[in-house]
Amino acid sequence: MTNLKLSKEELLDKIQNSDGNLSISSVSSIQEGEELIALAKTLEHEGKIVLLEYCVDNKPLAVSLKTKKPD
Fold it and tell me: Among 24, 36, 42, 70, which is most exposed with the fewest C-beta within 10 angstroms?
């Protein structure tokens, strides 16, 4: 079981290197997924991304983020 702990900067880097649709499948718990979503919301609050959609999928356990660059 891997414990994924991304920093805000690492998450931002992953988002910026995606096409706006990012799926992170290395989460090990629902709580960890919710922490990733909270990080994405923080990035949105700081004006670094626009968070369009997000969800934690149960099978397989993954976090999906749909984002766009701020105008």
Answer: 70
For 25-60, what is each residue's pLDDT tens digit? Answer: 988 999 999 999 999 999 999 999 999 999 999 888
Distances (CA, A) of 58 to 16, 48, 65: 25, 28, 15
Q: First-to-last CA distance in the chain?
A: 39
Any bridge partners for residue 57, and if so which? 62
65: pLDDT strictly greater than 60: yes
3 lies in a domain? Answer: no
Structure tokens at 60: 């397989």
Contact (Cβ atoms closer than 8 angstroms) between residue 50 and residue 32 = no
Does some domain include residue 51?
Answer: yes
How confident is the model at residue 58, as a pLDDT?
A: 87
Our count of domains for the chain comes to: 1
